[in-house]
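Before the break, one more example. Copy the sequence into your notebook; we will annotate it together after we see the structure.
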Amino acid sequence: MATKKSTAKTAAKAASGGAAKKATTKAAKGTGTKTSKTTKAAGKKASSTGSATKATKGATTTAKKTTATKATTKKSATKKSTTKTATKKSTTTKTSAASLVVREDESPWTAAELAEVRAELEADVTRLREEIQLAESDLVDLMSDPLDGAGDDQADAGAKSYERDQEITLTNNARAVLLQNLHALERIDDGSYGVCESCGNPIGKLRLQAYPRASLCVSCKSQQERR
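Here is what the structure looks like once it is written out:
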């Protein structure tokens, strides 16, 4: 009887120990699962934080690059604007009268003398443009009138032909003189006025005052006419 009770106690202890062991194992598994979940969550959070940090750094870098690009563009635009302004100023600058070339036996140009020559050239330019415009208008009318019109005899046809040729010649001459005057004004502005375009010697102030659009000295002009 005592032996049976001892056996029963032993079996009960073993069962109790097994149950306790199972409970401990489950508790351990539960704790491990929770720990694993916590670790994964912490890892995700750290990854998210790292991504946010990278994004912030990227945005900061992009902003810095954009700011630097804008600053460079602004400096470049300012430099171009300054260059254009300097070019414009240098283009509009006119040569002083005293710096123009004269003969050794002549006094330098004065501002009043040069202003007088310039005024004469500009007046001729205005007059020649008006003459050319009028001549071209007359020439259009002449060209529209046939040479062998009804009732015209040989003399009338010849007169019309001569008038046309005369108008064409006058118009071409006026254009040539206009170009010479404009060229003289350009030479005054760039400082080459008074220098012979053939030999490079001074044309002479007196010659230019009498003939402002002259581009050759007396010797070179004479040689040109003899050819």
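Residues 100-226 form a domain with the Four Helix Bundle (Hemerythrin (Met), subunit A) fold (CATH 1.20.120.910). The mean pLDDT is 72. Try to locate both features in your own notes.
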